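Supplementary Methods, section 5.1.

A reviewer requested that the exact input to the structure prediction be made available. We therefore reproduce it here, unchanged from the version used in the analyses.
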Amino acid sequence: MYRTEHPEPQFYRESYECLNGIWEFAFGSGEGRTDCALDGTINVPFSPESALSGVGERGLFTECVYSRLLHLTERDLESRLAVHFGAVDYEAEVYLNGVRLCRHEGGYTPFVAELNPAARAGENRLTVVVRDDVRDNVPSGKQSAREDSFGCFYTRTTGIWQTVWLERTPHEYVRSVRFFPDAEHARVGAEICTQGEGELSVIVRYQGRTVGAVSTQICFRKRVDIALSEKHLWEIGAGRLYDVEIAFRTDRVNSYFGLRDVRYEGHKFLLNGKSVFQRLVLDQGYYPDGVYTAPTAEAMRGDIERALALGFNGARLHQKLFEPRYLYECDRAGYLVWGEYASWGMHYDTLDALGIFTAQWREAVERDFNHPCIVQWCPLNEVWEDLDDKRRQRDVRFVEAVFALTKVLDETRPCVDTSGGYHGRHTDVFDFHCYHTPERMREYMHDLERYGKLTMDTLYPPMPEAVYDGRQPTQASEYGGVAYVAGGGGWGYRTSSSEEAFVGDYVAMTQLLLDCEKVCGFCYTQLYDVEQEQNGLYTYDRRPKVSAEGMRRIAECNRGIAAIERTSAAAESAEQFAGKVAEEDSVCTAIGK
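The structure derived from this sequence is encoded token-by-token as follows.
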């Protein structure tokens, strides 16, 4: 068993029982197979397309079945028994002893199957029936709808790809908690939902010391506000997380939060009231042996460490809802994140898939609401047209409805309506994608700096242009994309023939963005190669693409103070961060991990 760590550190119970490991498995429909043994096996939570699953079937199949036995005692049956699924792509039906317990649609969001209606003492057969077709009008991200991978589309993921676990809880229990940190006043609000009513207590600790507490009565839902006796801000490079213990009747839940606030003011991005330039890198969340699923928690930490070693302070987690465990590692590291969804795969020319998308996006925002690392929501990406049919133009109501819903779900964070455009009437950020040469980018920055003008042309013409109104903050949320492979080959938006040209191109483009007073962040494409897309700074197996000197030049450029940060306080903060990273992880050491 590879994955035994708790998948949700923000909602931990001691009754956690990991159900990862060897399950029975078969391709095909679940008809007649919801209460019987299956012939094959698979290593959960790795998808059948991955090598770590033990199956390694990368063909275009649409149905499969999982099954395993659960042993339950008479005492177990006195508790509420719930099996949690981190993510199953795409439609999942869960059965216990042939009785259907639930159905869930959406390949990236969690759901729970309540076992009690069909549970019995002794052996119980748990079965999951899956249907998944990326050719449907549903969110599928970068999963290839062809037999093979191509361009920036990669190997598919079918079925269970995140941890499955069993919890035994009281029948009156804590359902959820949402935290509302108030960094300025050293307070935190906690909105708690319960199944039932009774005595509730919340204790907040920092490094073991109790720094706040409240006790009260609750009837299904209540918000409590807790003053903190110690103020420790969540900042770049320093997570400083507060631990929280929630007790309701006989139920106990452990959680955490970070004390910070984020907003845009004018053209600046502010973290705890200080101007911070977002030095982000695009992370696709793919692994050579696990596809969508990291082989270990250490592998997740490794990608964060590689990005930090190169002077990035965060990542845009692209076209995929990353595992909560990954976000936990970002929370601990003080690593900025854009929370994105796997929006590609839908047709935006009508509103047919709007209900499908908003239902899943709501689940995503609710799942990740408490993560301090998430500083901006990014529900959609490049939805100006259908990628397979250039004649089909989007219905802008799709974009505007998703933005409005996001703001209803979370008023505490900014949101970009659709990364890379075309933007609707409402967005907190006017971001743009630029896969052009440094010379073309120089023209972009000149127009923005001198005239307050930014004309964004699409990667997939012909289309009209989107023109910036000069008032909103701007970010280059995708740039670079230069394929460099020693000896040639590989797909990218552009190609580079030598290390010197590749590094020089990187430094030239990045410096242009840092020097523009109206740009508050960038996101370079991308951290590592993925399959045939060879435009990473690391290879797919996480080896550095260029020499230690080349990586040092990239890191040094990234850590340069941006024009928009140039106040004494911001400059001091940036210098301290650069010094901290240099002290703790030398580039030459970290890039070899």
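Residues 499-515 form the longest helix (17 residues). These observations are discussed further in the main text.
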